[in-house]
Every structure is written in C-alpha cells, then in structure tokens.
Predict the 3D structure of the following.
Amino acid sequence: MNEPRVVAVIPARYASTRFPGKPLTLISGKPLLQWVWEGCIQSRTILKVWIATDDKRIAQVARSFGAMVTMTRGDHLSGTDRVAEASKDWFPDWVINIQGDEPLIHGSLLDRFIAGLNPSFGMATMATPLTDPADLQKPDVVKVSFNRTGKALGFRRLVELAEAKDWSHQHVGIYAYQPKTLQKIVRLPPSTGEIRERLEQLRALENRIAIQVLPFTFNSVGVDTPGDVPRAERALADRATRIST
C-alpha cells in the first residue's frame, strides 16, 4: 500500500487579539513559529511544509530561517480558511493544518498521526490525555469528547468536573483534511458553536462532517497568551535535557 501524499500548512497571523505578534515571540531565543516549523520538517511523511500568512513581518522572518511562504488574504476568520486558500491548487491525499502555537510538535508525532488517518473520514485531529483536573475549567485548554471508534462528539473550552469522564482528553491543534472536505468547510458559514466557543472545528462538526480523533500521549504546551511563554521554555528545556542524557 502506497503512503498517502501529504502537505502541511502552518497558518500564521500577526493581529491576534489575545497575543499580538505571537508567531514572532521569542521562545528560548527562537521565534515560536520557527520551533513549530522545525518540528514539522522533521517528518518523514510530509512532502512539503508551507507557512501561510498575510503579514510581511512574519513572511520575512519565516524566509530568514528557510521556510517556504505563501501570502494569503488578510480577511480570513480562521486558520482553516487561510490553509484552504494556500492549498486550493494542490491535490495531495491530505492537507495538514498545524497551528503555530505548539513549540513541542515534532516529526515522529506527525508521522504517527498521518499513519493513523482513516480515509473514511474527511477530517481528523489529535488529542492527548488530560493530566490535571484543573484544566477542565481553563478556557485556553480545549477539551474533546470522542467515542470508541474515534469519532468526535464535541469540543468545549469549559467542562464541569461531573462530566470529566466524557471529556478526558485535551485537543491538540493539528488537523488533517482531504482537500474536497477542506474546501467544503470553508464555503460554509460560521456555525453557532464555532462563534460561541471560538473553535473553528465546530463548523465541520455542526454541519455533519465527521471528524476522526487520534489520541496520543504528547506534552501539549500551547502558547495562547504571554503568560504561557515561561511554561513553554521550561518544557523545551526539559526535552533538551532528556535528549542529551
């Protein structure tokens, strides 16, 4: 069986409301975006990795560390919309949308994710077990519920402790789309849940597009606010120590 043809896009915008300039924020001496890109290009399965942005500052920095950049419109409401524009003329088996706020993303994790993709789903994403019950009430830690077949049942920012059994995994910002599904999603209007929760994947789910959830044990350290930077730096330092010992 031939391996699927896979390309990846990292959408990056400067004008984040919670953290302006986040992609260029230095994490242990490197832009956050560079950490994510370096993890992606380690993949043995992904054919090409592109950074998609509408900002010349991000494009300049990305090109300086060797990334391929595609410029997109500035009016996109989500990373999915930006990825769809960047990849509209490509015809791989899967397009991977890798959100640029997970500096610990690495190639072997992406390879295992791709190996698990089920073509009966038009879309897939990743999850990792929640280890701290306090995260249930942290809106920046997105929770996902899925059934035994790996089909997503819902995504939430806040979950009550009594519901913890059904929401035992944290969502990781990696998506895979079959190209036709991706273009279908971005032609749909924003859904009620997407607007309420500020979670773009709910547009697909609320329009009956089934999402496969692949669970992995992964130290997810998303950088959503400036306060997350020290935590990300500690996690990167811990990883470097483990690799060197």
The longest helix spans residues 229-244.
